[in-house]
Amino acid sequence: MTLDSTLGGPTLEQRRHLVTSIPGPKSAELHARKAAAVASGVGVMLPVYVQAAGGGVVVDVDGNSLIDFGSGIAVTGVGNAAPAVVEAVTAQVAQFTHTCFTITGYEGYIEVAEALNALTPGSFDKRTALFNSGAEAVENAIKIARHFTKKQAVVAFDHGYHGRTNLTMALTAKSMPYKSGFGPFAPEVYRAPMSYPFRDNGLTGPEAARRAITQIEKQIGADNLAAVIIEPIQGEGGFIEPAPGFLPAVAAWAKANGVVFIADEVQTGFARTGQLFASEHEGLEPDLIVTAKGIAGGLPLSAVTGRAEIMDSAHAGGLGGTYGGNPIACAAAVATIRSFQEDGLVERARTIGTLFRGRLNALRAADARIGDVRGRGAMMAIEIVDPATGDPDAALTAKIAAYAHQNGVVLLTCGTYGNVIRFLPPLTISDELITDGLDVIRDAFIAA
């Protein structure tokens, strides 16, 4: 362990360093225990077991230091065990761990709500309710929209991902592994075509929006529609960034027809894309915005924030939950949100995006199997294809990820077709680690 003053406290040495094969013997032993104790439906993508993490590395129980290109799926934007978060959580634990906000309140919940009301897009009066997970917040956003509009139908989009609960599985597009065998799903959920520039044959954003809106009007009708919900940049579906003009056109149609426009910013929120919220890239002002993941530095917290008249439409007691807005998670969130504002992390995300885009575009120029480079800020991806046909190549994608894992890079795949590699590093990662990690990706393509 070394002292890294740039991160404000004792941190791990910031380098990739392997002392065993991956996984090492201690991780293998723990993985065997996992198989005997944990339900097999709970998978572990990379079977190394972490002992410490910080900056841009995770260190496993065998002493291997791996470059973190995943951030626990976009959660640890401020880094693992960020000193300000640790301090805030420690102080809160010493005071009290739980009362249930809907029984006896506490200031931390209000502080988080005030911050979200002030920072989320839209100059209108807002209210916030806190929950535990992204899926739980999505469920509540739909619940609120239905209560406000007195309508039931909801539209989600192709390739979208919104969670693993019954309603959010219905909203989620991809069957395996998220939905297969778990039905029947919640009713009155419909799907519209997404703008997917790499596969849309030149369709512009407004044209793609018209295609989606026409389908919605014909199959559902605005008079029956409570809400449309969309990720400004899709996450699990493949980091699909819709063509310019698509999101504003859908939002404008929703506003004109009394439909609640919900932005699911669970993965895109909190500086990840080079703005505090991805909706800001196209000037969106969602009626409701759903946040989670990066909100609390790794502690479980989520939120629905939106127009006061919509949020306040639910009756007293209609929203809440035993752990929603837990005081420890709220303390972490206050410290985390302050870090995003004060520590230059929004700007850092843009710098990270520039570094990744430059290197990934160079790889693409040299290797036709990389069909597309896309994303914003510290949310970048490559789509891997058969260069002769343009068809998705999931097998090669799996080989690239496996090579990275074996060589000390935590790397995530995604996409409806399983052929996208996504890059979600902590915003505290160094340029040197990014360069080293991308060298491993380059070598993976050479070896494949």
TrEMBL record:
Pathway: Amino-acid degradation; 4-aminobutanoate degradation
Gene3D superfamilies: Aspartate Aminotransferase, domain 1, Type I PLP-dependent aspartate aminotransferase-like (Major domain)
InterPro entries: 4NH2But_aminotransferase_bac, Aminotrans_3, Aminotrans_3_PPA_site, Class-III_PLP-dep_AT, PyrdxlP-dep_Trfase, PyrdxlP-dep_Trfase_major, PyrdxlP-dep_Trfase_small
Keyword flag Transferase: yes
EC number(s) stated in the UniProt entry for this protein: 2.6.1.19, 2.6.1.22
Class of this enzyme: transferase
Superkingdom, taxonomy of origin: Bacteria
SUPFAM superfamilies the UniProt entry points to: PLP-dependent transferases
Catalytic activity line of the entry: (S)-3-amino-2-methylpropanoate + 2-oxoglutarate = 2-methyl-3-oxopropanoate + L-glutamate; 4-aminobutanoate + 2-oxoglutarate = succinate semialdehyde + L-glutamate
Cofactor: pyridoxal 5'-phosphate
Pfam families reported for this sequence: Aminotran_3
Transmembrane helix listed as a keyword: no
Keywords recorded for this protein, A-Z: Aminotransferase, Pyridoxal phosphate, Transferase
GO MF terms held by the record: (S)-3-amino-2-methylpropionate transaminase activity; 4-aminobutyrate:2-oxoglutarate transaminase activity; 5-aminovalerate transaminase activity; identical protein binding; pyridoxal phosphate binding
Family, per entry: Belongs to the class-III pyridoxal-phosphate-dependent aminotransferase family.
Alphabetized NCBIfam families for the sequence: GABAtrnsam, PRK06058.1
Protein name: 4-aminobutyrate aminotransferase
Native source organism of the sequence: Herbiconiux oxytropis
Underlying gene: gabT
